[in-house]
Amino acid sequence: MKSTRLVMILLLLQTRERMTAAELARELEVSVRTVYRDVEALAAAGVPLYGDAGHRGGYRLLGGYRTRLTGLSSGEAEALLLSGVPGPAAELGLGRALAAAQLKLRAALPPELREQADRMRARFHLDAPGWYARSTQVPFLARVADAVWRGRVLEVRYRRWKEPTDVDRRLRPYGLVLKAGRWYVVAAPADGPEPEPVPRTYRVDQIMELAVTGEECAPPPGFDLAAHWERAQEDFRDRLYRGRAEVRLSPRGLGRLNADDAAAAAAGGVPDPELAGWTRAVLPVESLDRAEAAYLALGADIEVLGPPELRARIAATAAAVAERHRA
């Protein structure tokens, strides 16, 4: 709705001070032409909006203007009360702060919105980690989070998977990410030769020793944590799956695939010309060892057609299992 967009423009300019029409259009998911019309409507209503042209231009509010539009819609109140995940907040040392903020928000709501928000919290519960993930102790998480917030260089002893496993690192922390119940810190080497070292990802639970220095640091201009994390995940998948396997799957086998294999089968799978109801697909393979283990777990619901070495390994393992279990 137009009224909602006008309020959003005001709130965005209050919090970010200056934004271009293109930036506002991306944020509001509308065209630049629509932003121009909305800005004209705000100016006609007496809002002191000023637009600068040029490379460093954009719209801004004059004279410290601030709107007092603080009302929440029903959906906004429900979303805010549902957005706090107690587990991660407690791990960051913010459990009490989150509880206090939600209590204040609830008290400020009118009765009808309070009732709806309470119903939302009673009906929905967020639990981020997977079913088979055990709770991992992360003793340095609160201190890492504090260093990220204050912009302080970290000195860590870190345990990695390859030799040498235990290494010392000086890091410039750029941000924290919670992925599938596990915390990661995105950081760049503090002593790298590059003026802007490439940030890497470190598991916080693999930090064995930690010292927070007084040396200040900050992300490079324009660094976007969410965008960086998305690119890092795509790079990880590209490096992880270097091979391919051609398989045929029963309907039951299709339903038992992991997420990446299921996506590949859905995108490129075709009906098998020889077995009715089965699907032929090409699946990504990290390594022969992992593919062998994953496909053997599917039992008779999968047949590996290639590569030949993977088919031979599965046949040999299946024959050995059958021999061992022969009556």
Question: Could you explain how this protein is built, in words?
Answer:
The chain has 327 residues and is α+β, with helices and mostly antiparallel strands. It has helices at residues 2-16, 21-28, 32-44, 74-83, 86-91, 95-108, 111-123, 141-150, 225-240, 251-255, 259-268, 288-296, 308-324; strands at residues 18-19, 49-52, 58-61, 152-159, 166-179, 182-189, 200-203, 207-216, 243-249, 270-271, 279-285, 302-306. It has 13 helices and twelve strands. The strands form three sheets. The chain has a five-stranded antiparallel β-sheet, sandwiched between helices. α1 (2-16) crosses α3 (32-44), α2 packs across α3 (32-44) and α4 packs across α7 (111-123). The longest helix has 17 residues, at 308-324.
Give the uncertain stretches in residue-range form. Answer: none
Shape: extended
End-to-end Cα distance: 72 Å
Radius of gyration: 27 Å
Count all strands and give the number.
Answer: 12
Fold blueprint:
Layout: H1 2-16, E1 18-19, H2 21-28, H3 32-44, E2 49-52, E3 58-61, H4 74-83, H5 86-91, H6 95-108, H7 111-123, H8 141-150, E4 152-159, E5 166-179, E6 182-189, E7 200-203, E8 207-216, H9 225-240, E9 243-249, H10 251-255, H11 259-268, E10 270-271, E11 279-285, H12 288-296, E12 302-306, H13 308-324
Antiparallel strand pairs: 1-3, 2-3, 4-5, 4-8, 5-6, 6-7, 9-11, 9-12, 10-11
Helix pairs in contact: 1-3, 2-3, 4-7, 12-13
